[in-house]
Amino acid sequence: MPTAVADYEFVRDSGYFNELISESALVGFAEVDPEILGPVAPDARYVLEHPKLAFISYPYEWSFRALKAAALLQLDVYSKALDHGITLSDATAYNVQFQGARPIFIDHLSFRRYRDGEYWLAHRQFCEQFLNPLLLRAKLGIPHNAWYRGSLEGISAQELSALLPMRKKLSWNVFTQVVLQASFQKTALNKDARAAVPSQSSLPKAAYQRMIASLRDWIAGLSTPRSEKTVWAEYTAETSYKAEDTRRKQEFIVRFAADIKPAMLWDIGCNTGEFAKTALHAGADCVIGFDFDQLALDRAFDRARAENLNFLPLFLDIANPAPDQGWAESERKGLSARATADAVVALAIVHHLAITRNIPLANVVDWLVSLAPDGVVEFVPKSDPMVQDLLRLREDVFDDYNEQHFINSLERRVKIVDTEVVSESGRKLVRYRRQS
Known about the structure:
Layout: H1 2-14, H2 16-22, E1 30-32, E2 47-49, H3 64-83, E3 86-88, E4 96-99, E5 102-105, E6 111-113, H4 123-140, H5 145-150, H6 157-163, H7 166-169, H8 172-188, H9 191-196, H10 205-220, H11 235-238, H12 243-260, E7 264-268, H13 274-282, E8 286-291, H14 294-306, E9 311-315, H15 335-338, E10 343-346, H16 350-356, H17 361-371, E11 374-379, H18 385-391, H19 403-411, E12 414-421, E13 428-434
Helix pairs in contact: 3-4, 3-10, 6-8, 12-13, 17-19
């Protein structure tokens, strides 16, 4: 398309791409010979090549903190673009990825020349994919993940407005960004009312920039409810572990990571990221963490940002992971289709899957072993206080939940390399290597 070519050349020649790349706000790229695409795109004028990202994640896997960081990056990119006479054709959250806990913009071709007087045409999309999911948690204490996964384009103003109590609608920001937007969307569905709405007049660029700056300030100040509590956010502080038990676990992970030095390690049940940090300092290049506890994920994300760790904690319900989704079930890939881990660490997770989620122990072992060729998994016996808590309000029908069955299930698929009991209750770490 000639206009797209002209827009790309204008943005490239403005130097804005280089500015963003130097700030690590945009993934680097190089122009390559269009003939590389062959018959797939015979009329292509430009083909851009960029480094492969370690892991692709989606907004419905991000914590509140991660989604907020991505939203702020998007607004910063918009604001600075306007200074260069540039804008963006959309505001989709899927144009942002993460390197560690640092968001980075990935869509070079969504930049185009700014047209004097134009409105922010992507405002509604930004609200649905960034603002409204954040408000869902900030104002109502409801995590965005399940809703966003079920509605890949985000949360509409009409849906959010219907949930908000009147007292929360009285805020100027909520009223203008949610309530009025919901009213406009409802009007847009009514043909007669739509015809009566006057066409929009032009918006000066300075007003455009003030709107973006105001929205950024509001989002920067959003936080989760102070009263919010989750079961596992305080796990590290409240666990029955003694300091010596934690030290043993850390030393075991240090030996493991130092020995194999995985390019990518998956930390299943990462909690606040303590052992992800241990693995990184011992030799892992990158850690992708997974947990379902929202506060724990927020704290893990904060840790990764504050300590500049190459660690990205993501939301995951292990018993119900995100499948292939979107157009033709190929637009958004399921977890196993996106990347291959070199190693996996699964601490204090097996008993939750086997007892809380009723997944047969052997199936849990098979799934963990399938993730990576090397791993460390923790077995927590029934005598442990944490397992006793799980069994307190239910009948113990888990006759095969025992260490021998766990070891037998492992040995069918892997070679056990090392073991260590790390607590008085008999918690055991098992390091294994998958048999080819």
